[in-house]
Each structure stands twice: as structure tokens, then as C-alpha cells.
Amino acid sequence: MPGVDLVRNPPGASDLVLLAHGGEEESLGNPHSWRPALLRMWPFAVAARSAAPGAAVGFMRYRYRGWNATAADRFDPPHPAARAVADPVVDLRAVLDQLPSVVRRVLLIGHSMGGRAVVAAGDHARVAGVLALAPWLPVGEPLVGLRAPVMFAHGADDTITDPAATMAYAARVRAAGTPVRTYLLAGEDHAMLHRSGDWNRLVADFIRSAQDSQELSGSQELPETNRGLQAATVGEIALARFRLPVRERFRVG
């Protein structure tokens, strides 16, 4: 069943930073805790803890690894209901619906397939901000009334998901009247392993903006302030994983 693995949950926390990892287009496999897609999100939990010390921080746990869209998602143009029936979106909306009543605001941060999921669920009443990192947003993805602040960030060298498609979707969001800020990271690819410090800074800045109800807008390249070896980022991920063990599990259904 879907749910949230909480790595931080201060007593009475009314804000939740919810991290949604990537996956596959089609798979009913078990999205177990040691998959690279989930592990890559762990340093963002550390960044969230620093940026919002009073907030709960957790990882979205899907039932399956895949997006697993119905035939509606393969229509040309896609059927408007497609976003609502993909497995990660169903799971994420179920979690948002059934979170404890003390949680009033949820900040959604997703990567790749998780980026597509947080966008699709970004109009939920509990959502107080959406950050999509290298999201998978196919041409014709239905527009959603995203709850601000909204931020999209993509590596310029990404060959798994398309940075141009992300910027095009962001432009549609702006045209529909929602402010959105976009960042392009030169020299970065889909795994976000080259400029880990810059990705962490983006996550922290987004969380602070959401907590302060700041409006985000504009498009820019993110100046490079941190570039390290991929092995160093892998070490950072491992350290974050062990520094922040799962303390509580919330399941729905």
C-alpha cells in the first residue's frame, strides 16, 4: 500500500516536506528502499531538515516502480484524465487525502517520474508548493492548477528527460496565470550527480520561499558554485541515508 516514510517528525509539525522519487514508464516491481532513484533523494531530506527545522520530512512510497498509465495517457493529445489514473498519482493523492489532520501544508518535491507525479497532484488543497527536478513532462502533458510557489529545475545535459519540454511546460503554466521559476543547470545530467551542492541549495531555497509564502518567477541558468566527483556525491547520499533513518511509517488504504 502507498504511504510515507518519515525521517523527521517534530511534535505538532503542521508542515510536511514530501520527496517523490523517480521510477520507470511501466513496471509493477517493488520500489524497495535501496533503489538508486530513492537513494538519490536522501540528501534533499538533509537540506529540508536544515531549511525547515520545524517541519516533518518524508519520502513518498509508491506501490509500484512504474508510472503505469492507462490507455488514456497514450491518446494524441493525451486525455485530460490521464494524470489522475497513473499509479504514482493515485498513490500521492491518496496520501495527501489521508494525512493526519495536524498536517495542513505539504511541500512536494519530485524527481523524474516523481516530478511528473508532484505536478499532477500539485492542485491538491493541502499542497503549498511544488518543486519538480528534471521532471518527465511529455509533450501535451495536461496543465494543472499548481499551488504556488512553483519551481522547475533541469540539467542542460539530461538525455533521459527533456529540459526543453520542462521549460515549455513551465511557459504554459505561466501563460495560465501561475508564477513559476525555472532553472537550467549547465553540465548536469539526469542523475544530478555532478552539481550536488547546487541541487541541494535549490531545494533549500524552494522550501524557505514556500514557508515564507514568497512568489517565485523568472527563468535563469543557475551559476555553478559546486562541482564534485560523482563518487563524492554517492558518498554524500550514503552518509545522508544513514544520518536520517526512517523513524515512522504512515500507510494509507
UniProtKB/TrEMBL annotation:
One of its GO terms (molecular function) is catalytic activity. It comes from the Bacteria. Residues 17-189 form the AB hydrolase-1 domain. Gene3D superfamilies: alpha/beta hydrolase. InterPro entries: AB_hydrolase_1, AB_hydrolase_fold. This is Pimeloyl-ACP methyl ester carboxylesterase. The lineage of its organism: Bacteria, Bacillati, Actinomycetota, Actinomycetes, Propionibacteriales.
